[in-house]
Amino acid sequence: MASGPEPRHHVFRQSGGRSGAGDYFKHIGVPAWIGAGCSDSHDFDAQAAAEAGSNMAIAAMASTPFVHNLGYLSGGRTGSLEMPALCDELVGWSNQMAAGCKVDADSIAVDVITRAARDNSYLTDRHTQDRYLTENWYPTLLERSDADAWMERGSPDLRSRINDRLADILR
């Protein structure tokens, strides 16, 4: 018998195929699921984060009502406390992206463009200020500060920030 790579879950390819199936099942009124927030990586590493982020974005865009395998590594054979903590962060990002953009007279804001164009005051315009906190997604684990602020906090990497979050949760 020929030997080769052992069969694996292959989360990314499976998620891509299931997004199309999710559209079909939604159309005929049958609940569907998708595997997301998981990875074939054997460690909580960059590959795990990239795969989890990718397959969670696919799940959000497919609007599947049920996601399973969240936090699994090694193609579903092991898990990690860090993975669900990261996925909690990624759910917000994925859902914000999948929600799309509302397009109506208020969101297009032609009057704001006309008014603010004269003095480049888009960011300080009341219309922008009223929507700034609700139209943007703000991470709690992913880094968005400038380099100086990050270095002043001790330059914590993502794994450190996740482990700090887990320590707070588990107290």
List the helices and strands and how they pair.
Elements lengths: L10 H18 L4 E3 L10 H17 L3 E3 L3 E2 L4 E2 L2 H17 L6 H4 L1 H8 L8 H10 L11 H6 L5 H13 L1
Parallel strand pairs: 1-2
Antiparallel strand pairs: 3-4
Instruction: List low-confidence stretches.
Output: 6-13
Query: Major sheet: size, sense and barrel closure?
Result: 2 strands, parallel
Extended strand count: 4
Helical stretch tally: 8
Portion in helices: 40-55%
Radius of gyration: 20 Å
Shape: flat
The share of residues in extended strands comes to 5-15%
User: How far from one another are the termini?
Assistant: 52 Å
**Mean pLDDT metric:** 85
Structure overview:
- It is a single chain.
- The protein is mainly alpha-helical.
- It is built from eight helices and four strands; from the N terminus they run H-E-H-E-E-E-H-H-H-H-H-H.
- Helix 2 links the parallel strand 1 (33-35) and strand 2.
- Helix 2 packs parallel to helix 3.
- The longest helix has 18 residues, at 11-28.
- The radius of gyration is 20 Å and the shape is flat.
